[in-house]
Request: fold
Amino acid sequence: MKILLKIALIFLVLNIMLMNLTYASGNVGLSEVQMIKKIKKLDRKIDNRPDETKLYLERGYLKYCLQDYLSALDDYTKAEELSPKDSNIFYSRGLVWFARGDYKSAIEDYSKSIEIDKKNAKAYVGRGMAKLRLDDVEGAIQDYNTAIKYDKKSRDAYVNRGIARDMSGFTDGAIQDYQKAINLSGYSPDAYYNMGLTRMKIGENELAIEDFNMAIEQNPNYGMAYYKRGHAYLKLDNKQSAKSDFQKANELLPGNKEIKQDLDDLTNELENMLKKQEIYY
Reply:
């Protein structure tokens, strides 16, 4: 559960990483209906121009966004056949493998991307993320270090190295990485969120609340940020604020059983406290 909480931001990071690709940037912000319509247009274009790599890349990206991962893999594999020396094809397919939970296949594709372009920083970040999911913390940190070597402005590398450093016990380094990511990009709700988790871990609950506040300010629908801020409030014995945050988290993440259980437990505790007070008076 610790790893799942620490990497709850993972799909946000994946989407940010994909948006940096040329064929993806023009499709950011499309609705599901718009993406389906665009896929149909691409189908027709591919029928007329079946040897054009970029068409498969764009369609693969849209299918990835719709979570049609198998079809996305097919498109990236076709793109590989047409352009076997394109580093971004393997990188993009690695992201799809990652989304499917096949981290070993993701590592294979990220490694192929790196073989073609050893300075492809985002491929090192992706491979590091996959290694982390396989509990290879040291290997993940090495990949993030290399990503930063080739791209000192890689926000994603700093965020993810922060997560790995926290998991290795290097909390000071983790906080430094999150702060670096925030300095590189004003919009970093994931960095604030994870910095809040690290601060809670070392008992800095007031500062953690400030971090969760910033995460929520930047992303008002960040359910896990409300949930973890609620736990920070609990550590400060502010149970009413904790309950409010648990309620909001439950609204945003209605299928999360852990959040629902914590909300129910705290609600019952507060009701029992109120009953005792009524009896006393």
In short: Residues 1-12 have pLDDT under 50 and may be disordered. The chain is about 80% helix and 0% strand. The CA atoms of residues 227 and 246 lie 5 Å apart. The first helix runs from residue 2 to 6.
